[in-house]
Amino acid sequence: MFTNFSFLKQIVILCLLTFHVFSFSALAQKRLAITIDDVPNTRQFEEDGFKPSLLQLIDSLGIEVTIFINEGKIYDTDFESDNFQLLYDWVSNKRVRAGNHTFSHPRYSAVELEAFQSNIIKGAAITAELCKKQDKTYQYFRFPYNDLGKDSLQQLRIAKWLKEQNYLLTPFTIESSDWMFNYLYINDLKNGDTLSAKQTAAAYLKHTSANLHFFDSLATAIYQRDIPHIFLCHDNKINADFFSGLLEIFKQSEFEIIDLDVVMQDEIFKQQSHYYGGAGFSWIYRWVESHDLRKEMMQAEPEVQSYFDRYHDLIQKK
Ligand SMILES: [Zn+2]
Predict the structure, then answer these.
(1) Any idea what the Cα angle at residue 33 is, between residues 30 and 38, rounded to 5°?
(2) Which residues surround ligand 1, an ion (CB under 5 A)?
(3) What separation in Å is there between the alpha carbon of 129 and the centre of ligand 1?
(4) Is the dihedral of CA 277, 282, 286, 292 positive or negative?
(5) 30 lies in which domain range?
(6) CATH number assigned to the domain comprising residue 228
(7) Other CB atoms closer than 10 Å to residue 229's CB: what's the count?
(8) What's the CA gap between 38 and 80, in Å, rounded?
């Protein structure tokens, strides 16, 4: 019988072996859907002189994405009609599929069920109508902070309600803390430190590449095949400035960008989550039954502690 540690070692060995084998035999089958949260970033839109930077880039690159909208962001700045137009442009773009991310981005663990439900309903008011007019489906929901609730009862109650409302919970398998790198990147730019900004952006891309390989290898080892992935990032400046760099990473790793609908049809995404807390980590971990094994897997994740330390220092000084 294996201890958890040796079991993890087995998985890591399997990762290395299967990744090596698969890198020769099944390259074409590596697939990934891109999802972008916290759309529309109206504060950045104002900073950019009302230019929808990330949307224009995605459109010009010709890739399909699914966005998760916080309609409340329309009212974050003094330019409601411009912001409404921005939301309209995102939702009506032919490469974009829209989902609900609540109105004002509350953490479900921290609020009552009824308040959270109202926030979801309010968050759909404009988008649902726009999608209907444009014959687009509107069915995906993603929890802010990927916080599904503080315990199994809280999680069960909202899951039941979301199903009744015909929402599909949207997981993710890979992310790379873009929100943290973005904070540092903007801080560098505000300080006029272009060298540090470049280094931060390079670290973000490097970390994305490391996480892509880590989660893909882990999934391949667990499921003994290539699984389609869901990549999570945000509508922010670092992605607007370096989205081409992200795509280059996917391309170099032979990942094809595909639609979220296709990814969600895979059996992997029909699995039950075994995690009953409010932390926002990858579903690859949530599908692991053993708490100890999950913890060990997490500890093997590529780390960027020095950047998190810098981030926390800045937050504290604020
Ligand atoms: Zn969010």
Answers:
(1) 150
(2) 37-38, 144
(3) 22
(4) negative
(5) 4-317
(6) 3.20.20.370
(7) 27
(8) 17
- Per-residue model confidence as pLDDT tens for the chain (318 residues): 333 444 555 555 554 444 444 444 444 589 999 999 999 999 999 999 999 999 999 999 999 999 999 999 999 999 999 999 999 999 999 999 999 999 999 999 999 999 999 999 999 999 999 999 999 999 999 999 999 999 999 999 999 999 999 999 999 999 999 999 999 999 999 999 999 999 999 999 999 999 999 999 999 999 999 999 999 999 999 999 999 999 999 999 999 999 999 999 999 999 999 999 999 999 999 999 999 999 999 999 999 999 999 999 999 998
Give the contacts of 297 (CB within 8 A, at least 6 positions apart): 8, 11, 218, 284, 285, 288
CA of 3 to the centre of ligand 1 (A): 37
Number of folded domains in the chain? 1
Residues 104 and 76 sit within 8 Å (Cβ to Cβ): no
Residue 279 C-alpha to ligand 1 middle, in angstroms? 13
Structure tokens at 173: 């398998």
Q: How many CA atoms lie within 13 A of 272 on its CB side?
A: 6
Cα(227) to ligand 1 centroid in Å equals 24
